[in-house]
Specification:
It is built from 14 helices and 18 strands. It has 462 residues and is of the alpha+beta class. It has 2 domains: 289 residues, 3-Layer(aba) Sandwich (Aminopeptidase), CATH 3.40.630.10; 114 residues, 2-Layer Sandwich (Alpha-Beta Plaits). It has a 6-stranded mixed β-sheet with strand order 1-2-6-3-7-17, sandwiched between helices. Strands 11-13-9-14 form a 4-stranded antiparallel β-sheet, covered by helices on one side. Strands 4-5-18 form a 3-stranded antiparallel β-sheet.
């Protein structure tokens, strides 16, 4: 990859200028007023893929925003890497909190990025990270060092739920055949401590409604005689966890994956300070499931949390009312092998079973997501780890994420492919917020690392 790396160094300024051109397009998928801009961004991605040497590049229309597809097949007998990314971005609002216009990219030095960072909406999520792959492809093709086949699927609806992606994948399974999916839409611990996201938690999200009397009642006349739905709901929620912070729903843990001590030890290598963690969010003490560290509780263990709770009178002053109804929204983060539909049904059955006869309970499922994991002994993970070790000079740390990315499970379900989440962003990049930014170090380090991934993956699949 020597010629490839030399090409990257020689063309680094152009690579930045071309990213700026893409960042200037306000491709906000959530706003119908920007539909034309989203289409313009898709056409721009198509042009850049063609210029990079990709073939059969097309803008594929959907019922929503288009998906850009392109490929570079050098030998059908060689492994194929399918790159996924997105060119749509979040709205810039609130625009008054930006230090510079959201769609006029500039480079500014910061404490985190003394070498400079790109400030613009989409700089990190995901235009900057997606664009790294196009520039890496160009460097390999122009240097005649592409070691395996490459396919690209870049969508324009990720920020609004990827509504048409599943349809596209199911209709194009043959076109999308590959050996691994490579995504850069995640991050690393720090520029000094590279890491690879190896797992994502799934999600079961429900809303519960507890109904008591047929109308709001006077709390003086009826209090103490009739069940108060808010009191009952509070008591029912309290019964969902025991004094060791374990979830009490029967069968909830039946399918939970138990990580090997080896992987837990690898995750524990990540730099972490409990005192800094508490200080950052201004708490005196952490709390969670007994027997696990704070980092493990937030990544490899399932959870149950109340996201919102309401009922009765919440306006100014006092209103002595015994409410007719009480509500709560509850989310459960799931780990590999837990099925969202099964967990939702287990929750529903248990929640209804603990309701007293004095109230009626309704559980309304909202949405869910399957958990996903990339084993650290897989060829995809090993290729990513070896690639990052070459570019960073140190072995990356495997980390499980507490969040959910539903498309990763979709790729495995429909295409039968594992996903490698080799991102280069930082927690400080302010994605989805004003002043989103992406370090120049991270942008160029990604372009440098990606060709190594191709080389390592091809070597491991010989």
């Amino acid at each position: 990859m020597q010629k490839t790396q030399e090409f990257i160094q020689k063309n680094s300024e152009r690579f930045l200028e071309e990213l700026f051109e893409l960042l200037r397009i306000p491709s906000v998928s959530a706003d119908p007023a920007h539909k034309g801009d989203v289409q313009k961004a898709a056409e721009s991605v198509k042009s850049h893929l063609q210029n990079a040497g990709a073939e059969n590049v097309e803008v594929c229309q959907t019922k929503g925003h288009p998906i850009v597809y392109g490929e570079k097949i050098i030998d059908p007998s060689l492994p194929t890497v399918l790159v996924y990314g997105h060119y749509d971005v979040q709205p810039a609002d609130p625009i008054e909190l930006w230090d510079s216009p959201a769609f006029e990219p500039v480079v500014k030095k910061t404490d985190v990025h003394p070498e400079g960072a790109i400030f613009a909406r989409g700089a990190c999520d995901d235009k900057g990270q997606m664009f790294m792959h196009i520039k890496a492809l160009e460097a390999m093709v122009k240097s005649d060092e592409l070691p395996c086949n490459a396919k690209f699927m870049i969508e324009g609806e990720e920020e609004v739920g990827s509504e048409n992606l599943e349809i596209f994948i199911k209709e194009n399974k043959e076109k999308l055949e590959a050996d691994i999916i490579l995504v850069s839409d995640t991050g690393i611990i720090s520029n000094e401590h590279p890491s690879i996201t190896t797992g994502l938690r799934g999600l079961s999200y429900v809303e519960v409604e507890v109904t008591g009397p047929n109308r709001d009642l006077h709390s003086g006349l009826y209090g103490g005689c009739v069940a108060n739905p808010i009191n009952v709901l509070s008591d029912m929620i309290a019964q969902l966890q025991d004094d060791k912070n374990r979830i009490t729903i029967p069968g909830f843990y039946d399918d939970v994956e138990i990580l090997s001590q080896e992987e837990r030890d690898e995750m524990a290598r990540a730099p972490y300070s409990e005192e800094e963690y508490k200080k950052e969010i201004d708490i005196k003490e952490v709390q969670g499931e007994e027997g696990y560290s704070t980092r493990e509780r937030g990544s490899i263990r399932p959870t149950l949390d109340v996201n919102g709770m309401w009922g009765g009178y919440t306006g100014e002053g006092a209103k002595t009312v015994l409410p007719s109804k009480a509500y709560a929204k509850i989310s459960m983060r799931l780990v590999p092998h837990q099925d969202p539909e099964k967990i939702t049904q287990l929750f529903k059955s248990y929640f209804e079973s603990i309701a007293p006869d004095s109230v009626r309970v309704e559980v309304k499922p909202h949405h869910g997501a399957q958990p996903a994991v990339t084993p650290i002994d897989s060829a995809g993970y090993k290729a990513a780890s070896n690639a990052m070790e070459k570019s960073f000079g140190k072995k990356p740390i495997p980390l499980r994420s507490g969040g959910s990315i539903p498309i990763v499970a979709l790729f495995e379900e429909v295409l039968g492919l594992k996903t490698v989440l080799m991102g280069f962003g930082l927690n400080s990049d302010a994605i989805h917020s004003p002043n989103e930014n992406y370090g120049l170090f991270n942008y160029y380090k990604g372009i440098e690392t990606i060709p190594y991934f191709y080389s390592e993956f091809a070597e491991l699949n010989k």
